[in-house]
Write a structure and sequence with these properties.
This protein is mainly alpha-helical. The longest helix has 29 residues. The radius of gyration is 22 Å and the shape is elongated.
Length: about 110
């Protein structure tokens, strides 16, 4: 549950079995702690949920730490959706105001800047 909630187990369903997906998510968490946090005390990332990994998971839970990369990706997705919505409104407005006649003119106007 921890790995899923903190963005280390994206696009997967929890099955309750420590299978390949859970092992990959565990290794991703270990890589994050080792590489991003620079904490080598977690040991070599191997996907095994041993004492060091469990200690780090408990440390994250106690200190309410978060996966900054997952937060960044989530925000990027939100920004992309927002950008798409704004762009759609601008395009609709240009067509409504007869500043462009159709999608081809719209494409040309964006190419010209």
């Amino acid at each position: 549950m921890f790995l899923k909630e903190n963005g280390f187990f994206p696009n997967s369903d929890l099955s309750g079995i420590f299978g390949y997906g859970t092992q990959s998510a565990t290794r991703l968490f270990q890589e994050y702690v080792f590489s991003i946090e620079g904490d080598i005390s977690i040991g070599t990332p191997d996907g095994i949920a041993g004492k060091n990994t469990l200690d780090h998971i408990n440390h994250w839970k106690q200190n309410k730490l978060e996966n900054l990369y997952a937060v960044f990706i989530e925000n990027q997705t939100s920004l992309t959706s927002l950008f798409g919505s704004v762009l759609l409104k601008i395009c609709s407005q240009l067509i409504t105001n007869n500043q462009v006649k159709n999608e081809c003119d719209l494409h040309k106007s964006f190419q010209q800047g």
